[in-house]
Structure formats: C-alpha cells, structure tokens
Design goal:
Its EC number is 1.1.1.100. This protein is α/β, with parallel strands linked by helices. It contains 15 helices and twelve strands. The two termini are 30 Å apart. It binds nicotinamide-adenine-dinucleotide (NAD). The site of nicotinamide-adenine-dinucleotide has 27 residues, from helix 7 and helix 13.
Amino acid sequence: MTTDRYTGFVSSGFGKTLSRRLGLPQPVELRRFEPEQPLLDGPIGLWGNDQPLDVVTDLIRAEGIEDASDGDARLGAIVYDACGASDPASLDVFPARIGPALKRLRPSGRVVVLGRPPESIDDPARAAAQRALEGVVRSIGKELRAGATANLVLVEPGAEARAESALRFLLSSRSAYVDGQVVRVGPAVLPSTDWQKPLQGKVAVVTGAARGIGAAIADVLARDGATVVAVDVPAAGEALAAVANRVGGTALQVDVTAPDAGRRIADHAHGRHGGLDVMIHNAGITRDKLLVNTDVERWNSVLAVNLESQLRIDDVLLAEGGLADGGRVVCLSSTSGLAGNRGQANYAASKAGVVGMVQARARQVAERGITYNAVAPGFIETVLTARIPLATREVGRRINSLSQGGLPVDVAETVAWFAQPGSAGVTGQVLRVCGQSQLGA
Ligand code: NAD
C-alpha cells in the first residue's frame, strides 16, 4: 500500500527522474510484513569486536539466513555486535567494515548494532565507546536511503538470550517505520515463544479500537493469535462492532473515562474469554489551542482520556481478578507529546505523562513478570492527519529519515512486538515509531 500520492509519484519512472533533478525527497515503498515472508530480504553481513553473541548466530542458523559478510552480494541486513567495544579505538569497525557494507544494503535493508547499556559501565573508556554507538547508529539512520533503517539494541550482561525478540523485530519488516531508535533488553524469565503466532491463547483488550491506529492494533494482535476485546465509546458502536467481527473478537462499548471502566473491562475479558493477558491503552483525543487560550475544561478533557483513564483502569486491572501475571501493557504516547508542540500543551502533558507512568508501573509490577511500555508514533496516515492543511501535512510527512508518513499498521506491529511473550526483557521503555522524525525528544 502506498502511504501517499507523492510516494506513488516518485516511484514511477518519470516521477523518480523529476524529483531527483529537483532535489526533492525520495521516499520509497517500505517492505512491510506479510505472513510466510522470510525474516530478511537477502543474506546478512555480520561483524563483531569479539565473537558475535550466540543469540545472533543461533537466529541466523534457525532462519536459514546466508552469511555474506565477505564478497559483494547485496545484503538484507547488517548486524554489528559491538558489545566487546572496549575503547574508542575499537569503533573503527564502522569505517573499516560497516561503511563499505552499507553500499551493499538492499532497499528496506536493516542495520542492527548490539551494545551494552553505557550507564552501568564503570570503565570510562568502555562507557565512552558504548555510548558512542548511539551517535553512530542515529547518524547511519539519517544517511541510509531507500527505506533502510538502523537501530541499536543495548543488552544487559546476562540478558543475551532475551535479545532474540528485539532482534527479530528490528531485522524484520514489522519494524518498517522504526528508525534510529535504541531498545534495551534486561534480564527476565523467558517464556517460550511461537514466533509465527506469538499471541496464541492470549486475551488482549484494545481501547479506541473502532478506527485508526486502534483498529490496526486489533487486526495485528488477532493475526498474531490473540483473542481481541475491542473497546470504544458507544457513539462509535457500529464501527466497533465491525472491527470486533473482522478480528473474530468481541466489542465492549465503554468510555475509558467512566469510573467503572476498569471493572467493566476486567469483567468482560474474564467473563467472555476467561482471562486478560494484554492491555493496550490506545484511546486518545486532541483539543488543540495555544496555552494562553486553553481553559481548564479543555485541558482536563485531554488529560482525562489520554492519561488519567489509564491510571484508573490499571489500578483495577493490577488488582486481583485483572491482568494475569506475565501480562503486557502498552500505552500510546506521541512524538509531538515528547518533543512538545505548539498548540498542544495539554496533549503533550498527557503523552509525556504516559511515559512517566509507564516507567513507574514497570518497576511496580516487575516481580509479577508484567511489562509496561509506551509507543510514540510520529506522523501516521490516519483520518486525523488527513485533515491537517496540505502544506503543514507535507512538512509533517517529510521531516523524517524515510521521507514519508507511517501507516497505522507500523504502530500496531510495534505494539504487538511489546505484547509478545518473548519481549519479557523489554520494559519501562518508550519506542518511537516515527521514521526517525526530526522532532526531538
Ligand atoms: P483516532 O481519533 O482515529 O481514534 C481514536 C479512537 O479512540 C476513536 O475510535 C475514539 O472514538 C476513541 N476514543 C476517544 N475517546 C475515547 C474514550 N473516552 N473512551 C473510549 N474510546 C475513546 O486516533 P488515532 O490517530 O488512531 O490515534 C490513536 C492513538 O495514537 C491516540 O492515543 C493518539 O494520541 C496516538 N497518536 C496518533 C498519531 C497519529 O499520527 N495519528 C500520532 C501520535 C500518537
């Protein structure tokens, strides 16, 4: 599916030539996930300061991926295990090996670098080398063309085997719009994962599921095996029922700000489906105005839906009879929330607040094996963004490394990855799905 008309135009012969001559952005159609698709679109180039971690070599073997580190074959992915980089001098693998290999990367190719969390390293030279990885990887993300991405996985010592789900996600086309990001993997009890149907047997609730990103999340969770409870306001009842039917789940009409929303969600999931394993807080609204023109009611309405409802619902879900041990909670944040945005002080407060809440909850429930994470979408093609005036919309779309907006499915794939049993080592994090938007944070 083409994300927008301009991307379709520059994919044609004439459009490509014209846009190149004029020096315009060159977005390409991103490779996106389809069932039965191989993990990589081509062989892998693999380098390391030491012997690459077993989790990498085992994955390559399990997926039957050809190692083409030597030679000049086009590559589906480049993996550099830099966990052994002990001082700045060891980083010259980047110009010596990785730089030349980038020329061999195929469209929508992947660069994944592995390192260690620098903040837990005492030796200054090693900490410097490890922190440097973030700068290089974010720069590579900005240099790559043709839909290729670069991301960094920081693996805590002892958590190596837990990195498989992050590697699989970032190497695959499921992470089409995740670029220039850092994912941390910590120790955790690792349940076994069926990588084809990771959510088989799980019951998942998605709020705001009647349309847009929430509907896409319902689709992807169901595709991955979950039984989905689709939640939305009564006014969206018809669209909600259509989504629930499409994914073979059930619909629950409830306003997430209602005082009994948590109880009703828990009762429905347990009563109709026998449990609750995955909670996705996606419902959200905007009420944009400059802060000087924002009255308390407008402020409160956004905080109530986007943040306070999640706190109140989860107080119920984390008590007896709610979310199962080993459960997963994923909350929708936003890059414009994280970076701050003119006219969106209320929205930004709610979306940055989500990150604070997620980090505190992650610590609170770690012992129960429950993970809490946030996804921060950038510019996603939905009915909301389609209403933005053309010029502003075009800027929003193009100011990222992939020169295009993401699709709801890109956010949904990231949510589904967090929800997997194999992502047990990933908690308290916020992952941007923004094509490496230049909106900072
Ligand atoms: P959308 O408006 O298309 O869908 C939101 C859904 O939430 C709607 O179906 C709506 O009825 C429902 N909802 C709103 N208030 C509710 C309530 N009180 N109770 C229950 N349901 C309620 O929005 P979207 O673009 O799909 O966004 C989904 C989430 O992603 C939101 O949290 C949004 O802030 C976030 N987000 C979107 C973008 C983007 O580019 N579209 C970017 C960053 C973050």
